[in-house]
Amino acid sequence: MRRVLTSAAVAAALALAVTACGDGSGDTGTAPAKSAAPAEVSGTVTWWDTSDATTEAPVFQEIIKDFEAKYPKIKVNYVNVPFANARDKFKTAAQSGAGAPDVLRTDVGWVAEFASLGYLAPLDGTPAVDKPEEFLPVPAASGRFDGKTYGVPQVTDTLGLLYNKELLKKAGYDQPPATMADLKKVALDVKSKTGAGGLALNVDAYFLLPFIYGEGGDFVDVQNKKITISSPQSVAGVKIVEDLITSGAAVKPALQDSYTNAETAFKDGKVAMIFNGPWSNADNLGGKVFKDNPDNFGVAPVPAGSVKAGSPLGGHDYTVYAGSKNLDASYLFVQFMASAESQAKVAGKLGLLPTRQPAYSAPEATANPKIAQWQKPMETAVERPWIPEAASLFQPLVEGYQKLAGGQTTTEPMLTDVATAYQGILKGWSL
């Protein structure tokens, strides 16, 4: 039986995770930017799409065709840019003033940084910020910096525990683990009873956060301008990861291209559990053990630590380059791509979570059972700091995590080194 969510149910669930910041209204008190009448707008919009080129990009290209049919005077130059390279590539192009796209699919953690550098056009009062009351609060807040709107939310997401139901059942479990202690036990039982790996870890800083949040830790305390990555709470969270590796509950992590390795092992049935987000739905369902048996693919909230269950709130925004020569066309493009209709199509075909409440009740979205399955994981989502330095905090942590996973260090000295690196990034912040 397929479970579907009403717009009210989804709004309530996601609002629980995102009511901490902003109303997403886009009302800055500034004068609206002047825009030409849509029928008069012409030109070319270059869009850098950072979505997966194989599973996601074809759907966005379909929507582009719909846009060009509605606005025949506007052509879209579609460019798929690998996500891993997009931040640096855009900064280089924007700084030089040559080669930057008109519109960029921007990670929510990049918006404040790009805006602080003057690379993004403010969108308040333009067609890009259309029906702002429909947006969920924190996805909308991710696009705001210094009182202005610079990003229009495209999709929202978080991490969940993805699991192979058949492997868990063979190990004696009808339900996924609900706590970190249970995660270790279930993973070890899968390993001993099925021959498959229990858990595959992605050695990336973003994927450490559920463990840190679960013990009450975090990167930073923004309100008090304090670095908290080496706090006792954060240490306790990372120690769980260290124990999963040393105990064998987690398979030996790949230190290079760990995301692909973990994802491949999961969808091929070589491991029972991974942490991943809704962006991986289509990829997983195309895998060997799920393609002909999609009901075998389970989604659950990340297991809880001693304090709570918590996973990072992520997603992407549409942003417009401040130096664009095609601002009016870019505003219309963002408006169309971020519309409830476009979001519902993306949700239905890819299982990505909309940022507009009405999209959840659209038939295309409700037809995809994965949208309903991600309700519970979204309830545990934790808002990340919307500060210009946020994106820079990941590199020192991923470098430390790689050393930890490779057995070159242990939790306490690793996090002490990360905190020292943060002092060089966050000037004037205390430990």
Short description:
Belongs to the bacterial solute-binding protein 1 family. The chain is α/β, with parallel strands linked by helices and 431 residues long.
Based on the model shown, name its key terms.
431 residues; alpha/beta; six-stranded mixed β-sheet; 18 helices; 40% helix; globular
Structure in words:
This protein has 431 residues and is α/β, with parallel strands linked by helices. The chain has 18 helices and 16 strands. The protein has a six-stranded mixed beta sheet with strand order 2-1-3-14-6-15. A four-stranded mixed beta sheet has the order 8-11-7-12. Helix 17 runs antiparallel to helix 18. The chain is globular, with a radius of gyration of 21 Å.
Could you tell me the number of beta strands?
16
Tally of helical runs: 18
Q: Mean pLDDT across all residues, rounded?
A: 91
- Tell me the strand percentage band: 15-25%
Which spans have pLDDT < 50 for at least 5 consecutive residues?
1-32
Rg to the nearest angstrom?
Answer: 21 Å
Q: What class would the helix/strand composition place it in?
A: alpha/beta
General form: globular
Q: Helix coverage percent of residues? A: 25-40%
Measured distance between first and last alpha carbons: 51 Å
Largest sheet: 6 strands, mixed
Sequence of strands across the biggest β-sheet: 2-1-3-14-6-15
Signal peptide: 1-22
Keywords: Signal, Transport
InterPro entries: SBP
Pfam family, one: SBP_bac_1
Q: How is the topology of this model organized?
A:
Layout: H1 7-18, E1 43-49, H2 57-70, E2 74-80, H3 83-96, E3 103-107, H4 111-116, H5 137-141, E4 144-145, E5 148-149, E6 151-157, E7 160-164, H6 165-170, H7 180-194, E8 197-200, H8 209-214, E9 220-221, E10 226-227, H9 232-247, H10 258-267, E11 271-276, H11 281-285, E12 297-300, E13 311-312, E14 314-320, H12 327-337, H13 340-350, E15 353-354, H14 363-366, H15 369-373, H16 375-379, E16 381-382, H17 394-405, H18 411-425
Parallel strand pairs: 1-2, 1-3, 8-11, 13-16
Antiparallel strand pairs: 3-14, 4-5, 6-14, 6-15, 7-11, 7-12, 9-10
